[in-house]
């Protein structure tokens, strides 16, 4: 089972959009995909058209009350399941401050789950707090959505530092699978510079023992496309909303590449 | 002195870009502007070309050690000052958990400052935690940058709920000045729908006693413009980088409108 944390503490770079659409693209290739919404904003839950804040169990109950993961899981569509978020999750950080093993609560819930999946994809909030740490402890690989902007690139070193600490102290399996460029506007000078910086940075890490030594800059790039911003308002993935637009093609290409990675390893 | 918190817990909507460029636009109209970087990512600090993480006092020292605000203030350019962030700020939330009056530390530091300004503009991180609460407690008005996307609109009710709580319990002066549309792509169906929703929502609040009863949707809209994403890599505002591009025109227009509001009240 591949457990993927989709993370970047820089806000608004395409984390939620990637978990939703990459998840559905993998499901279309007959993979059973569980998605988990670890963001108190509950945007992944909204993106799938589920209502956050109901009395149904959510990821809040899994973390704070020990509710079994299966009891908090909703079936969304063929081969896609969701553990929804809840606004209460905003308080979880304070509630878990003194809980024993607070960083590995999600990991243990996934291990104990009865239903088995090919992929578990975790949507993290734009921070490096307890919720994101739970995502990193539960995952065996990380996908980093990145906007090819100067400010977008600045947070990478802090993010990789946090991933290294989690790998050393909590989860030795953790590796960075790759960086996916989102909202990409080819042809801008800025995009070219950022891509060159990033490629050079990843190549220098090859052969070292850092968690991103085998990370790749995915060839599949997610182009800026307003349909990707429209489909959440209908509670649909891009494949159910506009299956032939650039957004759908890009995420389908990313799914093929993500699947290919596994065949190599 | 107008104390403005620029806030939206949704990530990547243009908070930092607005504090930097609106700040410089107000300074160009002979207003003395203090900007404060409350985000551990230190993007406002980077945007002004200052180096975060040096031994120089930062907003971390002001909040956690009681360093006077004037001692942590840097002069950036004519009429613009900055209290920089520091990566250590990421730990401030945990360090301040049991501090007495932890929400009003910034407010008191501004009140005690010797140097006086016309505007204090506070860049908040993408969350509603202790740092953002300090921003709301220190401000007398709020500007909400918003991306006209479905997911961008979802967080508004939670944001307004938090502002109401701060107004009731900590800071009775707090009012929402307005919402500024950022990264705007006119002509998309989505933008039209979001704008209509928002306008209707603000009009319904007129005459009530909620903190956004007098809030406006600023006429000045910040159009999507790659130059706004390029200028931070040079440590420059849009006015120093490309003074005649759409980004500069839009923020200049916003400054005129923000100044005009004061004359009415
Ligand atoms: N390729 C794209 N083209 C155009 N719009 C996009 C694209 N990807 C995402 N968006 C839109 O941009 C906004 C930010 O994306 P998203 O919410 O997925 O980012 P995020 O990293 O999850 O944000 P947060 O940090 O708040 O969790 C959303 O409104 C989304 O609909
Ligand atoms: N009008 C615009 N057109 C194009 N790019 C923009 C515009 N405004 C901001 N940007 C870019 O979009 C990205 C997000 O903007 P910014 O960092 O200001 O948002 P933020 O709300 O401060 O993000 P965070 O939630 O991470 O603090 C940055 O890379 C910025 O350079
Ligand atoms: Mg998200
Ligand atoms: Mg910012």
Describe this structure in words.
The structure is a homodimer of 265-residue chains. The first copy, chain A, is an alpha/beta fold and 265 residues long. The first copy, chain A, has 12 helices and 8 strands. An 8-stranded mixed β-sheet of chain A has the order 3-4-2-5-1-6-7-8, sandwiched between helices. One magnesium ion (MG) binds next to helix 1 of chain B.
Query: How far apart, in Å, are the first and last alpha carbons of chain A?
Result: 14 Å
CA-based shape of chain A: globular
Q: Which bin fits the share of residues in helices of chain A?
A: 40-55%
The unique ligands bound to this protein are: adenosine-5'-triphosphate, magnesium ion
- Which protein chains make the most extensive interface, counting residues with beta carbons within 8 Å of the other chain's beta carbons? A-B, 37 and 37 residues
What strand line-up does the widest sheet of chain A have? 3-4-2-5-1-6-7-8
- Low-confidence blocks of residues of chain A: none
Order of helices and strands of chain A: EHEHHEEHHEHEHHEHEHHH
Number of helices of chain A: 12
Number of strands of chain A: 8
For the largest beta-sheet of chain A, the strand count, sense and barrel status come to: 8 strands, mixed
Strand content of chain A: 15-25%
Average pLDDT across residues of chain A? 94
Sequence-ordered SSE layout with sheet pairings:
The structure is a homodimer.
Chain A: E1 2-6, H1 15-28, E2 33-37, H2 43-47, H3 59-65, E3 74-77, E4 80-83, H4 92-95, H5 105-112, E5 119-123, H6 130-138, E6 141-147, H7 150-154, H8 156-169, E7 175-182, H9 189-205, E8 216-217, H10 226-230, H11 238-241, H12 246-264
The complex binds adenosine-5'-triphosphate (2 copies) and magnesium ion (2 copies).
